[in-house]
Amino acid sequence: MPKMGTSEARGNFTELVNRAAYKGERTVIRRRGKGMAAIVPMEDFDLLEKVEDLIDRDLLKKARAEIRKKGTIPWEKVKADAAR
Question: Distance (Å, rounded) from C-alpha 51 to C-alpha 59?
């Protein structure tokens, strides 16, 4: 996987996008040697979105189960606790 600094990536942006779109190449963009962002094919991005959605659904199921088990906290109590 190619890695390059932000200045170099700026100068090669169109090429990086084309390589991601047509060759499926991922490129890590670095600043001061640290990965800051990535240019990835849309297929990779779509897969990441699906994984995040699955995680969110799982967390929602767990939250609903906890509500059924423990109940909820009235808004007035939450507001009063926050005011302390």
Answer: 12
pLDDT digits over 31-81, tens only? 999 999 999 999 999 999 999 999 999 999 999 999 999 999 999 999 999
Residue where the block lists tokens 């779509």:
46
Place of tokens 């190619």: 2
Closest CA to 27 of 41, 48, 7, 42: 41
Find, among 54, 3, 11, the residue nearest to 27 by Cα.
Answer: 3
DSSP state of 30: E
Q: Are strands 3-5 and 27-31 parallel, antiparallel or unpaired?
A: parallel
How many residues does this entry show for the chain?
A: 84
Which among 44, 8, 13, 9 has a CA at the least distance from the CA of 26?
44
pTM: 0.73
Lookup result for tokens 């959605």: 53
